[in-house]
Amino acid sequence: MKTLVYLSLALTFFIGSVHAQDFQGIATYKTQRKLDIKLDSTQVPSEMQEQLLAMMKKQFEKEYTLDFNKDASLYKVVESLETPTVGGGGMQIVVAGAGEADVLYKNISENRLANKSDIFGKTFLIKDSLPELEWTLTKETKNIGEYTCFKATRTETRTVQSSFSSNEEEGTEASSETTEEEITITAWYTPQIPLGHGPGRHYGLPGLILEISDGTQSILCSKIVLNPKDGVKVEEPTKGKKVTQEEYNAIMEEKMKEMRDRYQPDNRRGNGNSFEIRIGG
Asked: Which residue from 82, 145, 209, 228 has the fewest beta carbons nearer than 10 Å?
């Protein structure tokens, strides 16, 4: 009897491995972000606050597709909204995100990524190795659509920075605050699609990640098409100035500094206030 059990398990594992090699598909994801931001009414008029928060929230509501095969995936934004900037009464609002990719290629078999990002009118191609993600697997399950998903978690430290600069007749005020916080990332993956892919830079679980949340941002799969008859092309992006992730972060920081300086009082175009919120980075 034991021999039959062992044989059955071995056969099941073999069939699962074969199916994993055959799997390819397209998954569609939608993102949302909770914003818990309090704006000072002396800096941002109270009548503008609701409008501004609504615009910032919409900035993070996007749709992506994940094209995948057994080795690699391509995560692409479908609907890209312009960064909300509001001018009026001398006020300029700028929201800077965490450098989300326009096109993100991950090759889990070769442990590398290529991230094409268009920002400030320039195209960058970030080429780097995939970071090692330490997941804790649990037995907790839930259904997402027709798929049974298991829960996995990991922790990550992120930097949150906010700054404010004003140009008033009485003088100049500028302040900046940077904090680090440890967050828990929760993923729900399905072994029914036994590939280690996921949205964004999330990967490395024994099944496709269908939902992920860090407490403020959530990414949820709304549609999956497996093995489409026309096949799936997972092509690595090649256009853009090649930089490492560290170099890209330095460029982003310099560009944001230039944007802040643009509204300082020594710049004649800087009449009024600028308020910047940075999430991640």
From this structure: 82
